[in-house]
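pinning this so it doesn't scroll away 📌
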Amino acid sequence: MAIRTTVVGSYPVPHWLLGDSSRTALRDAIMVVLKTQELVGIDVVADGELNRFNPSHPETNGMIDYFVSRMNGIQTRFSITDLEKFRADQGVAYRSEPAGIVTGEIGEGTLNLPRDYDLTRSLTARTLKFTCTGPHMLAKVLTDRHYGERPRLAMAIADVLRRQLELVGAEVIQLDEANISGHPEDREWALPAINHVLGGIRGERAVHVCFGNYGGQSVQKGFWKDLMPFFNCLKVHHLVLEFARRGYDELEAFRDLDPHIGLGLGVIDIKDNAVEEPELIARRLEHASKTLGPERVRYIHPDCGFWMLQRSVADGKIRALVEGRNLFEGR
């Protein structure tokens, strides 16, 4: 089985989009990101997550705020008491304030993921990935004053996401979960919500897990082996995981991964401006192949999104990604 190249999601924002929020400027920016991926030969392209970029919330590139600011039942203005309650929560110390306060039943509000997909779909004929922040991640950055417990909150968010993603026809749909890596103990309530969303996806189902890229820094600590019970219960076709920054010593743990779940291997370090040599990418693939077997790795990709890097650096890294894969398969 050929190894496919893809990106995790975000891409550096073209400078003209910072000063022009028109639909035409957005369309042009997405087209540039797609064409850049096409020209170097990326197999599964994505929109750079520009559909949800907001210069007023640059610190997470819209990963959180785009979703919660549009859903009904979530307040995005906070009192001092709200902030004190949020800061008492565990596992969100990397944020200074909540993404929102849940004050009522969560509904879709003005969130319109099918519209975002339709715009991108019209700009490329290539195999397309659509990304969406998952219900565990979103539940963890909210202060709840309505549901009373996180499992109910996560499932309410999952209901909204599922109904929207049922209408998205992308060949690959990826849920992004960047908090579970440091909190494997959450799996009992995270799994039902994540699997509920995955169950509504028509195409190939993927879940991306990393240890954070908040301001170019890792924000979670933990080990892949502790997440194996979580991974093996996901209703997913493949995982999209961080390895380049962490190293590959933990690959051994993935011998316990359900063989029906494909492994996506991070081979590009997005926290380093140096562009990897194709030879390094090929060696990383060779090591994974020797450790887990020649058919185990189904995708290679960066560790996470590129949005913190300069465009010239990101462009060089995806070129190396494709050339490294080709070098490995040529051997």
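📌 and the second one:
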Amino acid sequence: MSPDVGRFAVVLNRNAKKVTREVAEMSGELVPPEDLFLSSSAGDSQEIARIIIERGYETVFAGGGDGTVMHLINQLARYPLDRQPAVGILMLGTGNAMARMVSSGNLKGDLRTYIRSATREVVPISLLETEGIRCPFTGVGLDAEILNDYRTTKEKLGSGKLKPVVQTLAGYFLAIFTRTVPTRTVKALKGQIPIVRAVVKRGDAVKLGPDGQVIRSYGPGDLLYEGPMTIALAGTVPFYGYGFKILPFATREPNRMHLRIGHMMAASILAQLPQIWKGEQPGGIQDWLVEEVEISTDVDVPFQIGGDAHGYRRQVVFNTIPNAVRLLRLL
């Protein structure tokens, strides 16, 4: 090991589909056994975080997708930031929104690069907080509904011959076309479209045009939007999973999140999906930068935090936590 590399730990999620026995053994070749942690529950994450803080690791690598990283970060957040290690991300899950900002996607290569190279960068990343949970993105509406439908699809097809397909990006599209789009179409024909209100809770906010230009400013208590809603999401990182750059202005300011509200018919969403995927602002979508926002709807709508389904809500608050975590970027 290079003499300029401080002690580091690796935390792997046993439940992540890419964290196989071979992956754990390969990690063990590069990491001392006492510095390799395998987690399978929230309780494990809490105990692992305690040990990491007590031992004073310089860096901790998390492998297993956005959920793994999010659980670890939330447990580390219970301690002062100056006691927390930098967080490296190993791309081993199905989401990997944060990993795409800092990881090569090769577990063995990333660890070897860290060990052998003195060239690395620690990048402060803001997060948002909702219902006491810190996360890189959250939302109500279509994205959370897709997560629910994807989970149902996995439960029905994930144990048979289609399991390898269901656990990839193809599984999401299968859920979208077989469950989400038909359900959304029927609801739209019946006029069952949620009405949403977005109000500034704290700080200033600005509305952005298609190219990110500021076109209007707001203050606390101001109404950002009221009307029909297909999706209302917010984040401090540009990506969802699989390179889906749905929040292109998320890292523009450390003290404000990117809020995106859209109302589009299912057919229009599918037709404009390539533009949305690349981070463009097609018709029916509006964007803001805001420190804290309250979202309320007239009916219960699906809710997700960091890519995990969290039931249904009529009211949620999203709050920005500036520079909440230090991510390790390998150069």
